[in-house]
Amino acid sequence: MQPLNVLYISIEGNTRNFVKNLTRYAAEQHAQNPDLPELNAKEVSEQTDFDDLDKDYFCFVPTYLDGGDGVNSGVKELMTNVCGEYIAYHQNASHLIGVVGSGNRNFNLQYCLTARRYAYMFKAPFIADYELRGVPADEVRIYDALVKRAEEVASAE
To answer: Coiled coil where (predicted)?
Structure first.
């Protein structure tokens, strides 16, 4: 299986930490079973030059919002806009095969709202979520979800 490609943005370091741990976990799985994919991750920031993405990828995005509940009183996304702009660049959205969200469950309806909005906007499934920096069980669960989704996409081609 080809490596799993991940595009992510990290504001406070939580997503970066999680993706780093997930990358390590994927490498361990690949070492034990070469049929399981490794993970290639690319972090996006305000300084990132946009490239054309020509391979399937997953997006990992945290939620940072300014007011509103995203349902009844609107929403204004903060700090992660460049990730959405990168996905929207040229044909990049056509290669997005899944979105993973993170956030703080204390924010109720806003929990993972940015990821759910990206999934809707870019017509890609919302496949998993984790809170803050995640825990080791999240690495296992999310890796399995990425592998499953990549297999679904490969079998549909």
So the answer is: none
